[in-house]
Every structure is written in structure tokens, then in C-alpha cells.
Batch of 3 targets.
Target 1
Amino acid sequence: MTEASRTTAEVHIFNPCIGPWTRGPYVIEYDAILSNGKIIPLSASGSNSAGYKNPESGTTELDESFLELVTYQGREFQKYSVENNIYLGPVDDDEIERLEVQHQVLSEVFENRLIFPPVPGPKRVLDCGYGNGTWAVEVAEQYPSCDVIGIDISPHMKPDETPENLWLQVDDLNRPFTFPTNYFDLVNSRLVASGLDKTRWPRYMQDIKRTLKRGGWVQMVEMYLNVQSDNGTITEENALRKWSKRYVEAIEESKDPRVGMKLGNLLSSAGFVNVETRLINLPLSAWPVDPRLREIGAMNRNNAHRLLRSLALYPLMERLHLSQEQFETLVTQAHAEIDNPSLKAYFPLYVSIGRKP
């Protein structure tokens, strides 16, 4: 989107975060690698009528296969996800803790704003990929008259207690949505790239658009797990670069690790209007000079350390066949580089919004 095509109103309504518009320095590419306590699934026969009222209507009993776990290198994974190449991250207590830290980091980045576009008094909100449920819980608590529905492939990380106006459902986002047309005021999609097939994205956008009310908004957040340097000092010899290349290589056959930089175009192609995108350089430790960014980096250090291990464990060892010793050496070296302030390491974080006309 060009500067000339933005209106003043659009810029003012979307200012959830730090960082420049659309571009940041040193983004390296690789040519060679190119409710109520209930969990309920979406029904394949869900109604598309506007009379859909109860978030639990049209659901079926949870398929027991979604509950099965498999232990790999001491971490617990959802068996259904790894066997069907859907999501290769762990779903255990350690990952729940990491996701909570990550949510707090993003909350600081977004200045505690849960909703970025102008959606006053939302009545229905959909959260795609709720993870440990923190965002959905906070929205449900902030808007007690709003029905909040969350979808995730895994039921294992949901909170034990949820507000009465929150329903957490189990389903695969790679499947077509079964929610009614013109139903939600807001759809939130955050960090789903590792679980969404790369060919699914255009139809995923269309599903979101169909289920939004006219004038409803979508907000999307994706992180490109390709570590960058704010001063360009990370080279091919660095462990952080090696980790990034191997992680991208391990997942890119079926996933799109670079989708964050494409969100704006995907939204526009799907027919959304008032599309805005921001790129945020998310520091991995407390290297920034700016006090606020330094605090964010300090908060994010714990998340970054844990993320390098948890998200890459299965892909690198099972898909790329790294030995346990090779994996541990790579992660240990990458941790040391995160803590080296001279490298100024960060992840590119993309935030996009769009409105259904």
C-alpha cells in the first residue's frame, strides 16, 4: 500500500505498536532455502445461516484422536498434529509457560491493546489459533457482553477456567470455516503460520472475510523466525543464522514462514479495504538504547531462549535428522548470541489489519 493511498484516519486508527512502516533494515533471504471449561470442535455440518445464535450449536463430540499425545525428546506433542504435519511445536506445560511470556511481550509491544482497529463494543469475536487462550480470555473479560470463540488444533494448552462468554473449540484451521456468514465483528489471527498449510492462505482470508460482518475487521500478527541484526553483524557463520536457515528449510515445504510480509497483499487480494501493515523489529534481548525497547527486549529474552528450542526440536531433529548433540550445540550457541548485545538480534514481526467492505 502506498503512502498516497492511506488516509489520515487510517493511520490514526492503527497505531498498535513500535517500529517503522512496511520496511526494516537487514532482512536477509536465502535463495537456496527458499467455555466454561469446555473444549468443543467445530462441526463439518455447521450452519451458514444468519440465525446462528449459540456458539456451541452445530458442534460434535471431540474426536479422541485430538487428545492423544506423543513424547519426543522429553517434550509432549499432539500426536494428531505431528502425524498429519499440521503443527510441530510442543503442547506441554513448558510451552504453556513460554506462550504466556510471549503474550506478555506482545502486550508490552502493543501497549496492552487487545484490538487494533476501531471496533467499539464488539458482540462476537473469533480468535484463530488461541494457543494457551490468554488473548481470548482477556478479550472476554474486557468485553463481558461479547461472545468470544477460539479455535485451535490442540486442546491441551487451554486454561482450566474461562469466562462464561468464552468458548474454546477444537478444529483444524486448514479446513473451511463452518461459521455463519456476516457473523463476527472482529477476527484475530495471531502466529498461525507454523500450523497453516502454505496453499491454504488465500482461502483462509476468504473464510475470514465471509464470516465477518460488513464493516467488520480482521487483525493479523505473524513473526518471521529468521533472526536479523539491527546493524547487519549476523553472518552465515553465526549460530542464529544457522538456526534460522535450518528451521525455514525444515518447514517451508508445507508452511510459509515468510507469510508475515505478504499479509497486506493477501488481505487486499481477498477484497479487504483500509488495509494497513506494520513491521516491528522485535528485540531478542535488552540491546536497544531506547528505554521502552530495551525493556521489551529484556522481557523477550526468556521467550526467545525457549522458542529456539521448543519450536525447532521436532522439525530439526525429525525432519533434518540433526542428532541430539548437534541440536543442543546449535541452540546453546544461539542462546549465547542472543545475549550478545553487539549483534542486536531481532525477529521481524508483522501486524496487518483490514476491513470487510
Target 2
Amino acid sequence: STLRMIAGHEVVTSGDIILGGRNITDASAANRGTAMMFQSYALFPHLNSLDNVAFSLKMRGVSKTERHQRAMALLERVAMSQYAQRFPSELSGGQQQRIALARALIMQPRVLLLDEPLSALDPFLRIQMRAELRHWQKELGLTFIHVTHSQEEAMALADTMVVMNHGRIEQSGSPQQVFSQPASEFVARFMGGHNILKSSQGLVAVRSDRISVSAASPATGQPGVQATLIDIEYQGSFSLLSFNPHNGSQEPVSVLLPEHLVDPAWHAGGDYLLQWAEADSHPLGPGLSPRRSPIAA
């Protein structure tokens, strides 16, 4: 909904949308300086690639010769000029995405809005297209607002990451800041890779890869908890260990260790000491209480 409000496709009921110092809250979708790439790419199946890219210019009354020239220039820029006469059904998912990108750029927007553009792609193509989107963002010098439910995708693409909870901003910052220093329990759980633990200061988040496992006595001054090993899951160069803590919590503790640090003598049912550095323990704020959504009758 936030993306659609920025694009002018949904009504804003409170607040303002400011783009480059200009209030565009009440501006028409065509006069906002934004363009949108939809999750499904929304290419017209009866138009070839060239005409799909040129469609917005056609609606603006631009001559066929000029719009085809401008569309072909963009197709060349996204390395798709050789597919200008092909229809969407004749293109792969990655090729369709490039056509959709060229079509979104034809009106020279100041901001490109991307609605989960990689979600329909297979994992290998998703990684490839992630790199391409990053390349095009730098090449074009445009602001991209990219909506995704993939934490990995957000961290790979974002300069600034915004985590939203029920339409409200829970935390914003660089991907490194948001992942390493989650502001609330919601952010820590959403980003993944963290354990939510009880401490004398309240709830804290500790990254799974910052916890050590041993059978030794606690190190002086270092936080830790005794726990029973549930399972060891081999993941290639790493192993994921699951523990039941002895502190009364019903929530398992996950530990991610490089394979060479996993002791072959460790076994399910054994009791071990989990420890982490004080600096790796991040206190969690209360977060936002989600607003109650109105019920449609």
C-alpha cells in the first residue's frame, strides 16, 4: 500500500509524500515523477518488446518514429535490443524483467518503485537479477524504492533499509545497522539470525553466529546460559545447532558455527554452556504497537 500511495494509485488518508522537496500527495500519478515495476511485470501479451516499452509514449501522443527510437535506445541500454520484436511469452523471466525496467524508465522518472520484482524468479536467476538491479541503480543514478519480504534481498540491494510493521516504520538504517543492531523484538525476528534472550536488562538480541559452545565453566563477566543440545544440522561450511536453554525459556537457542568448530563429541541430549560477548548483546526496545485495522463490513 505504501508503494501504491507513492505512485498515486491509492489515496493518502494522513501525512504527506515529499519528493525532492515537492509535495506530491495530491498530484496525479502521471505528474509525480515516479514509475512502477510491478511484481508480475504487467507486460502487454499482445505487444512486442519494443511496443511494450514505447506504450507510455504512445499514450502521450508521441509519434511512432520518435517513441520507437527512444524505446530502442532503452532496450539497447538494458541489453535487450535483439529481442525488440519478441512477445512476452517468448521471453524468459529475466528478459521480461529487463523489458519491464526499460518500460518504467521511458518517462525518465526521478524515482523507480519496485514491487517485489524478483519474487517470481527461481533462486539462481533471482541472485543474477539482484546484481543487475544494483548495477542499473548505480548506472542510472536513480532512487529505487524496492519492496520485498526477503531479508536477504533487502540487505543485498539497499543503501537504506526500512522495516515496516503494520504500515509503520519500526526501524531504518543501513542493512548492517538493522541486522546487527535490531531496535525491537519484531525487527530481530523479522531479520532472522538472532536469538531473543532474557537478561537483567530485559530482552536482548544475540546473533546466532556470535555464540560459542563449550563444556567449560563460565568465563568471568561474560553472559551465558546452560542448555541442552537438541540437534546438529549440517549446512556445508557451517552447522546449525539447536539448544533448549535452562533459564525457563520455551524458545530454543540457535547457534551457527563454522564446521571446523563443531566438536565431534557433541551429541543430542548433552548439556553445554552457551556464551557471548557483552558487546554482542543488543537490548531490544518495546517497538511499535500495531494500529488496529478497520474492519470492512
Target 3
Amino acid sequence: MKLPRQKRGISGSRKAHAPYNFVPLPERRSLVFGKSDLGAQPPEEVNKVLNRLPAHDRYSTQKLLTGFLTVGVKTLTPLYVRGMFPLSEFLVQEKGQELTNDYRLLLKNQPEFFHTHNPNEPIIPGSSLRGMVRTLVEIVSYGKITRVSERKLFFRTVDDTAVGIHYRDRMGGNVETGFIRQTEGRYFIKVCSMSRIKRSLLVPDPAELYDGRPPNRTPQWNRSKTWRQYMQVWVLLDGEGNITAINAEEPDDESYLPARLVITGDMNDKKQEFLFFEPDDDAEEVDVSDDIVDRFHDDDQITQWQQKAFDKDKPRKNWRKRDGMLRANLNNMGDPVFFLRENGQLTFFGRAGMFRLPYLTRPLDLVSTQLRNPLDVDIAEAMFGYVRTGDELKVMRDAAVYTPEQLQQGKKLRAYAGRVFVSDAVLDPDQELPHVEETITPRILATPKPTSFQHYIVQQDEDKDGLSHYDDQETVIRGHKLYWHRGRRALEQLRETDQKWLEDGEVKRNSTQHTRMNPVRANKSFTFRIYFENLSDVELGALLWALEPQGDTRKRYRHKLGMGKPLGMGSIELAPTLHITNRKQRYESLFKGDNWETGESAPPDKNALIQAFEKFILTTQNENKQRLAETDRIQVLLKMMEWQDADPGPSRDYMKLGAFKERPVLPDPRDV
């Protein structure tokens, strides 16, 4: 299978930069077993293949290895994993019941590092360490690509790129209007007609229609104002349907028609607002699925502007369950919305005429089915375990490779428990206090923006007009996202210093984009253990490779963990020591002289295990190489993990917002 590959040698004016980049998708997987091993074999032969996944009720006395790795962790830069808070506080946050807008006091911004007892004795949770290790095992073992969003991303752009043309083709002249309502649990849009009204007929100064300051001011809800969002009005039309008069009170003249005033975002040179006429009782009803309503309410759909514009207490207290949502009671009139139908089905709806539109294709669809076949089991799944989803089970049943009995609950094909277990990392003793830095407000840590398709999917053309987007079937996603190391980082390099966010030298208290943290200091050491049971030489070699990347011996390779990776936080050095235990010896005797019998025996040579793993991968990948580090894909991984003490400069920083306008392309990591 030949996949599209990212263009190399992107010209300077078209080259983007970011604190992250990608390890490309593998063109084939290296499997423990797969569909090709099973074919149409009888059940007894299938069971032999399944035995490549060892049983959990016994220890192997031949070939398979059991033991643990003691792993030292040294922080090279400040490290942060947020602590937990009680369920009661979590529910207060989820329900939007916090009584403050001060970001410093919000529950989600509690700064303590993860701990179990004393906040000054930080602990790195095993779940974070396990995720870090598993990701690297998946990459280096050429595993399946399954953890990709199954939800369609949204976009809105009218620029002159391919995606802008795609948006206009779908939206142009096709948007309708109506009121979304709910009756007896059923959502539907009551279709209505719409007209535009000149702002000059409403107010002499458009600012009177809004709260706040440009460019982020929001529609006015204040009932003391003459004109406000969603208010009922009465309008008079001329013979051509143009609005000639508008009243806030119902006039005696029956020529006036009832409507709702809809004020959308304030843009430069905007001249008009919208009026939605009240629909007739027999007007068309367009069904709206619960899934579409849920998607409308998702966190990635409700922008910060919408949270302010549709506050849960506007126009009345508890009007919505949370900021940005539709009104809680959609009986009666409902909320005015714009919507799009394609092929006779509702695609989506929004609060403005140019609302965000879902792509036709999911990110998951840009991963070949060969790279995510549930009939296959890769090394990472065999080591760390898996549970097949309902959709995956359907694929397995439809393939008719397995008998119904082999897919029953409790069978290996349906779910398999892992054989690798990761402990928390605890501080090593006798280190200088304090372990944790003072509370800081770092620069904004925004969520990933996969909608920047020029970064997140493979681009074979750097020209703006030739860029691929998510509905382009000739491309694939870029691969595993990793963050660059950025050298030693002082605390002052992490703090927010941009004056637009500051007031009296501190971040403005009403900020909705900042957080607080108490990171662990650089040069602190922790220790954790990775326990493993019944691993093959190849599997243990994969684990060792992930902990100690096998690249150029003249270079240093380090790992990333925790929050703040774009700022250069979370760079750590790992030092594993291998211990093998003989379980038969362990259980034959309680004591060994004056000590407990642990069964620990001399470990095999780590290099031999790593070589066994590399040989397996190179063979299954048909690579005529001596070492895994010689393959293109692993060269990219090693490049991303390279560590230097010095700051590499702006090539690993976010671009300024204005630089995204021309949609520059994120290059191959080897070209950074």
C-alpha cells in the first residue's frame, strides 16, 4: 500500500512552523497476527493463532519473560500534571454553577501538581507514563492507527483556497431559516421566511446593538434597550418585500407582520441584521436528530464568543443549561437558526448565515482501513491490551472469519487484558527543597486545532490553491503528533508576558484562556516501575526501544510528558534497568537464605532483545536495512525526540495569527 507523503523541500515563503510535527503513517503494519493468518481456517487452527496471545492464568516457563523495569526519571524542564479534585467540585464545574469569572478561582485552574497526600510531594501518575510509553511502542512497532476522531470536523472559510471554494459550493444560496423547537423529546426546525433590515432603521450607531468592545462585542439582550437580540417586532413591507418600518410594540395596523430580530456578529462594513418571520402553523418541519443537537453543544463547537453572546442567564436567569447552548425550553417559539440541507437531509444548523459546516469526511476516513482492521492484533495491543468497540465487532462479524463463539464476551478476540503495568513515579529521597515551583500563569495553552488542515493532513503541493483538505480523498492524515523539545526552559520563559493580556503586571482576572500551575522544577528525579508478564523477546525489545530510543549514539533522545509541551515543558530523561524473575523459582520457596525468595535471575542482554525486535520489524516491513534507525519513518521519530540544551529558536514556536491567512504548510520534521 503506497500512501501519499508530505512534500519535501517546501520553499521558505510557504513553510509553516509549530511546536509540534508528525511521524507519518506506516504503509504496512507489523502484526502479532492478522486476517492473513486466519483466512478460512477451521476453528481449531484459529485457536492456535490466538495462542500467540498468552493466557493470563499461568506464567510461561519457556521462552516468555516476566519481570520489571526500574525506570529513573529526570526532569530536564519544568513538568506539570494537574492534580485531581473531588467529584462534588467537578459537578459544580460541569453544571456551570461557579459564582466567579476570576480565572484564578475557577476549579479547573487549581494549580497543584498531581499528588495523593502532600501537595509538596508531587507524584507522576502511572496513567500518564503508560500513555507515553504505549504511544512510542505503537509508533516504533509500526502498529495500527485506531485512535483517530470519528467525528466530522467543522470549517468556515470564504478564502480563495480549495477549501474556501468547497465551502462556497456547499453553502452558496442553499441556506434556509427557521426556528428549532422541541416537542415531546423530538427536535425539529419549523421553516420560516427571512428578510434583512438595514441597521440605519434600528439605530444611528450600530454599537447600540451590542455589549462590550470591538472586535468581540456581543448582541444586546438588555430589556431596557429598544432593540435587542431575539425580541419580537412588527414590520411593514413594501410591494417588493423590503422593510420600510419596524415597531417594538404591536401596532393597530394589521399590515404589520410579526417577526424576531436576529443580531449576528459585528463585522466591519456590516449594514444589515436579520428578521425571521413567525412561521405558519402548517409550515414545513425538518427533523433534527439528537446527535446533531449534541454536536451543536460540543465544546469544540461552542466558541468563546458564543459563550458570551449566549450566556446561560440571558435574557433571563437559567435560560440555558450552559453558556452557548440553545435555550432550555424549546417549546413554543424556539430559537431562530440558519440551516443547510443536502440530498434532502439536514446537514447542520447555526446561529449565523455563514455557520460552521461539517466536512463530509471524518479524520478516521483518511486512515486506510488496512491500518485499522479489528481482525488484526499488533504488538502494542498484545502488550497493553484492547477492547473491541461495537463498530469493530460488527466488522469482525461481517468478515465471517470467526465463529460466533470466538467473538463471545470473555474471548480474546473481543477483549484482551494487557501484560504491561505501570506504577506511579515517586520522588527520589534526599533532594533539595522545594520540589515544586511557585504558582505561575503560563502563556495560553490552546487546544489542538486540527481544522488547520494544511498542518494536520498530508500536503503533496505547497501552493495555496493546491492544498488538500479533509474532503480530499487523495490524501491521509499526517500521522502521530509529537511535540519538539525546546531546550532548557527558565520559569520566566513560561509566564504570560504579552501586554494585551496584562493589567497592572498580571493577567486580567476575567481571562477565559489562561490557567495556573505549580510545575515540578527541572533537575528533579523520580522512579517508577514497569511490570511485565509473559512477554516475548520481540515485545520486551519493543518496550526497551521505546524507553531508550536506538538512534545515533552521538545524539541524545528524550521523552515528553504532561502539560505545556508547546512551551517546552515536560522534557524528561529516562534510565531503565531490567530485572527478570523466574516465577517457578519464586513460588517453590518462601526464603532465600535470610531474605525473601524473589525469583530474580540474571537478565538477558538488553541489546539482544532490542535486536530481536528490530529484526522482526525490518522483516515484516520488507526493509533491506541493518537497523531500524535507518528507515525513513523512524528517522522522523528520532528527529522529533532529539534533545539539545540550547533553545532551537522560533522554528519550533507557534506562528502569529496573521501568518495563517496564507495557509503555509508544515514541513517534514527532517526539513525543520
